[in-house]
């Protein structure tokens, strides 16, 4: 085992040791590629088995992983996914999965590695500084539609496709899948061959999604986005117009 692998193994051992405390319910962990997984493509050894079951009792996981640009991330993603998957009691997941290069957004979808996993108690999901696809988000939401109540998407990147859609399609489908009480959207980007574009009107999507979820809870039809947006802007324009009457005609 070379020095890099020894360092990786040592750091994993320390993480496992900390996670083993039975009273620990919240884990915040920031790491890079050599801190997490040995640089080998061999099968997992007995030493790695404790890594895959280290956080079975953790309820809140804040995991920030930075990987090197240009490297094959498949082994790293597999290790991270197995690590997260062992959290059987997970209620809150904050995940940041990003490259170390500021000039590149990364292109590995970590959610793809979690596509077979269901966390029965998952209530809050926060994803940031990561690349994903519409299909991966759909799959995650459908698997946890009965439990998720809060979603945060910040500085996220997506490559739109004809088959699965783009950010706008995901956001408009979202209230039909999960019953949210809280949502936060910030800097959602779409990546194209020679450029990237930031999604607009995110500040409008947030209240519309919450309004849709409230309508579902009240047994009402969800408002159509275009109609809701028009009414919302008209209401705001009236409220900001100092010449608008404050009492109905004939009531003064």
UniProtKB/TrEMBL annotation:
It comes from the Eukaryota. Gene3D superfamilies: Ribonuclease Inhibitor. InterPro entries: LRR_dom_sf (IPR032675). SUPFAM superfamilies: RNI-like. This is F-box domain-containing protein. It comes from Lophium mytilinum. The lineage of its organism: Eukaryota, Fungi, Dikarya, Ascomycota, Pezizomycotina.
């Amino acid at each position: 085992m070379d020095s890099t692998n020894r360092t990786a193994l040592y750091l994993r051992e320390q993480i496992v040791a900390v996670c083993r405390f039975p009273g620990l319910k919240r884990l915040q962990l920031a790491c890079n590629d050599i801190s997490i997984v040995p640089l080998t493509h061999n099968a997992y050894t007995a030493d790695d088995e404790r890594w895959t079951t280290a956080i079975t009792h953790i309820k809140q996981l804040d995991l920030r992983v930075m990987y090197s640009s240009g490297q094959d991330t498949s082994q790293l993603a597999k290790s991270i996914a197995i690590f997260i998957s062992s959290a059987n009691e997970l209620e809150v997941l904050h995940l940041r999965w990003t490259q170390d290069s500021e000039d590149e957004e990364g292109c590995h979808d970590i959610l793809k590695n979690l596509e077979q996993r269901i966390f029965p108690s998952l209530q809050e999901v926060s994803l940031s500084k990561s690349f994903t696809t519409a299909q991966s988000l759909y799959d995650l939401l459908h698997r946890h539609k009965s439990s998720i109540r809060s979603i945060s998407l910040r500085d996220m990147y997506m490559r739109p496709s004809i088959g699965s859609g783009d950010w706008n399609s995901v956001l408009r489908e979202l209230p039909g899948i999960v019953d949210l009480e809280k949502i936060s959207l910030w800097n959602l980007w779409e990546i194209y061959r020679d450029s990237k574009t930031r999604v607009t009107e995110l500040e409008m999507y947030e209240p519309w999604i919450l309004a849709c979820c409230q309508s579902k809870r009240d047994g009402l039809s969800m408002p159509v986005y275009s109609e809701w947006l028009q009414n919302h802007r008209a209401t705001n324009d009236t409220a900001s117009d100092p010449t608008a009457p404050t009492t109905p005609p004939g009531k003064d």
